[in-house]
Specification:
By secondary structure, the chain is mainly alpha-helical. Helices cover about 70% and strands about 5% of the residues. It contains 15 helices and 3 strands. Strands 1-2-3 form a 3-stranded antiparallel β-sheet, with helices on one face. A hairpin with a 2-residue loop joins strand 1 and strand 2. Helix 6 packs antiparallel against helix 7 and helix 10 runs antiparallel to helix 11. The longest helix has about 35 residues.
């Protein structure tokens, strides 16, 4: 046998034995159907996925979202042993979530509100996962399933409000530090010059990233809801306050070292140090309060074995192929509606 043929044969054998054979037989068909359904939904909402990927890659406010798919994959991998103990069972009512997601997508396209359209595109994929894998599986992966929502770029709506908050914190600290200053909206006038709390200085990118991180930590390392809520609240308040202190620090340094030096110092601090300090401070403060190990998050298969509410849900299950056909029909209907109601919706 020629070396090239032998090598290809060995690769094919490895792929078959290493990936396919290692997957429990009960999971093979549902995973193939799920992959087909997600591909179909992604094709229908391709414009939205293209817009989101562009924002993840090119807008620094959303760069952290590039890590979300890896986080979701890791969270599912942590539950691999538990997932092997259950059997995916398609759920007819899950189709309602797909319809709702595509309805939201269509609404966003018709109204020109990208946030709604993006949320609908992601929601349709989440709905497909629930519909094809069923409520029992989705109860085990509830955290990564919900975490997919962070694929939606959001936060620009907060920028004006964060600018105002940052400006007020900065002017308060500036006056307390003995520097005469006057504020007019987001403009702070001092003896050495006029400072503007620009959009880039609002702190929105760090706030959104911190909320994304805080929810991951709160649901993997805490069990009590009061500690979860407390950590998330701290992850919102601390970055906002810290950003105000950072803005004040820039103004304060400028009074003695000049505006150019302060601006350069602020760029380094804001871009490389600020977020790291906030993250380390919050995690260090919460470290002793952690209640569980990461791999212990959520339910186990044993926890769900006697859950009557899940048994009631599973009573209405369908076959995987029927579910795929239903999702395809809904996706086709949404696509036709988009073309008829807004011909530019898919271009």
């Amino acid at each position: 046998m020629p070396p090239e043929v032998a090598q290809k044969s060995a690769s094919a054998t490895w792929l078959k034995s290493g990936i396919f054979d290692s997957t429990p037989s009960a999971w093979r068909s549902p995973l193939c159907v799920l992959a087909a359904a997600i591909t179909l939904l992604a094709a229908v909402t391709a414009r939205e996925w293209g817009e989101m990927i562009h924002q993840w890659w090119n807008i620094d406010t959303y760069n952290h979202i590039l890590l979300v798919p890896f986080i979701v994959g890791w969270l599912v991998w942590v539950k691999a042993d538990e997932l092997a103990k259950v059997t995916p069972r398609p759920w007819g009512w899950g189709l309602v979530l797909v319809i709702a997601g595509l309805g939201l997508w269509l609404t966003g396209r018709l109204t020109g509100i990208n946030l709604i359209a993006h949320a609908g595109a992601v929601g349709a994929v989440q709905g497909a996962i629930v519909a094809i894998l069923g409520p029992r599986v989705c109860a085990l992966i509830a955290l990564p399933l919900a975490y997919l929502a962070f694929l939606v770029p959001f936060g620009d709506e907060l920028v004006p409000h964060l600018q105002d908050v940052t400006a007020h914190i900065a002017i308060t600290l500036t006056l307390w530090s003995g520097i005469p200053a006057v504020i007019d909206g987001i403009h702070i006038d001092t003896p050495v010059g006029l400072f503007v709390v620009a959009e880039a200085c609002s702190g929105v990118k760090f706030l959104i990233a911190m909320v994304t991180l805080s929810l991951l930590v709160s649901f993997t390392r805490f069990k009590s809801w009061d500690r979860r809520a407390g950590f998330v609240l701290a992850s919102i308040v601390v970055p906002i306050l810290a950003n105000g202190v950072r803005a004040w620090g820039t103004i304060y340094i400028a009074q003695f070292a000049g505006v150019e030096f302060a601006a350069g110092f602020d760029h380094i601090l804001y871009g490389w140090i600020f977020f790291a300090v906030v993250v380390v401070t919050l995690l260090a403060g919460a470290w002793k309060l952690f209640e569980s190990e990461t791999e212990d998050y959520g339910y186990t298969a044993a926890d769900l074995r006697g859950a009557e509410w899940l048994s009631r849900f599973e009573a209405g299950r369908e076959s995987t192929l029927v579910m795929l056909g239903s999702i395809a029909a809904v996706a086709l209907a949404a696509c036709i509606a988009a073309i008829l109601l807004a011909p530019s919706a898919l271009t």
